[in-house]
Amino acid sequence: MTKKEKTSKKKKDEKEPVKKVPYFKLYRFASKADWLLIAFGWLSAIIVGVSQPAMVIFFGNSVNDFTSAGKFQACFPGDAEALIKFANQTGSADDISDYCLLTLSTLTDREKDLFAGGSGASTSGTMMDNIWWFIGIGVIVWLAGWIQTATLMYSADRQVNFLRATYFS
Length: 169
What we know:
There is one protein chain. With 169 residues, the chain is mostly helical. It has one domain (33-164). It has helices at residues 3-13, 32-70, 80-87, 98-105, 109-116, 123-168. Helix 2 (32-70) packs antiparallel against helix 6. The radius of gyration is 32 Å and the shape is elongated. The mean pLDDT is 78.
């Protein structure tokens, strides 16, 4: 095989690089109305995306409330007055185990209010707050997801119809 044949064979084997189209060039058939639909679709997609971290925050709050509610069952089973006295540091620690002393000495102000009834809060009340947040976020995500899908699909349909009309005319 000659040198000339080798170079011509290499050229045949090499493929031409694929031309890449810039992202916004994909929307060249979009009208102003389509761009408005696309903007609403993107905004809705952002709302759907932000909902996941928000759900994690409220789920963490729910887990914390469950944990706080069960924290004192071993120390004061059914004896809320002893908990209130100890939380307000007016009770004695003689009849309390080391585990309970450690648990009760690390109470946050929120836990003191929650279990001592200082602000009228209760475990079921704080859980209901979190449940309502979950429901609200769920409704918003459903609505934003529907808007996202509807606007982007409608815009794509309009652009494809315009492309077909242009191509076949």
